[in-house]
Amino acid sequence: MHTMKNDMKYALVSGGSKGIGFAIASALAKRKFNLILVARNAEDLNDAKINLENSHPVIVETLPLDLNDKEATEKIGNWCSERNLPVSVLCNVTGIGGSADYLSNSLDESLYMLRLNMEPAISVTHQLLPLLKKNQPAYILNVSSMAGLAPIFIKNIYSASKSFMIFFSYSLRYQLKADRISVSCLCPGPVFTRPAIEKETLAKLGKFGKWMAVSPGKIGETAIDQTFKKKMLIVPGTLPRAVSILIRILPRSFVCWLYYKLSAKSR
After folding, report:
1. pLDDT (0 to 100) of residue 2
2. Which residues share a beta bridge with 142?
3. Which of helix, strand or coil describes residue 11?
4. 63 and 76 in contact (C-beta within 8 Å)?
5. How far apart are CA 48 and CA 40, in angstroms?
């Protein structure tokens, strides 16, 4: 671990051990933020800690917690408050995807996805707000998806939960404006963090899916850069950004039909 003063600001990243969460953590470390990483797997967290501390002059704290556990968010809040850490950035990345449809998933699987894609962001934000208000100007970055911009035929529970994150972020942004806390929402298109995601995307969208894909590193850099510029909706990549505008302009019924046709073609 690097030796340094402890007066540097802290950023907390839930789901920060891998994928987009780790890329966001790396972008923050590059900007000399100490980090608190929260994820379920202690080994993945330790690997992320070693990687980040070897690459940047920052302190990385890890909290191995399952955010599906309601008590976990309270533990996060208490842990940060007891240490009076100067947390000024909160990144809510925790969530799950998957290609299974509501009709083919079990009820338990659907409800689990809903909980994990929405509740941790609400709970962690609520727990951290006192520290963020104390360390203003502060920033909240909620991670959604381009899937949240319109109904998706085969991933309806996923797109619905990601849509919630967008609406939650918009309203919270104005609620916290007077407290000098800026709220942003990241809506990436395809991100090939696992081979299975790449395979599924290419099967459904072909070359277009490959053109739409943005690397995790670029996602993280763009997300943090735009968050600090106080941009509300962040869509990394030129093509995904153009497509996201089109999706929002077109009638939702048409977009849903289009997704239906694409999904039927890929089966």
Report:
1. 42
2. 92, 185
3. strand
4. yes
5. 13
| 143-182 pLDDT, tens digit each | 999 989 988 877 889 999 999 999 999 999 999 999 999 9
Give Cβ neighbours of residue 54 (< 8 Å, ≥ 6 apart): none
The pTM for the full model equals 0.90
Which whole number is the average pLDDT over 39-63?
96
Among 134, 154, 96, 187, CA closest to 10: 134
Please give the backbone phi and psi of residue 194, each rounded to the nearest 5 degrees, phi first.
Answer: -140, 150
CA-wise closest residue to 92 among 151, 162, 31: 162
The radius of gyration computed from the CA coordinates of the chain, to the nearest angstrom, equals 18
Sequence-separated contacts (24+) of 43-46 with Cβ below 8 Å: 44/17, 44/18, 45/16, 45/17
183 forms beta bridges with 140
Residue type present at position 152: I
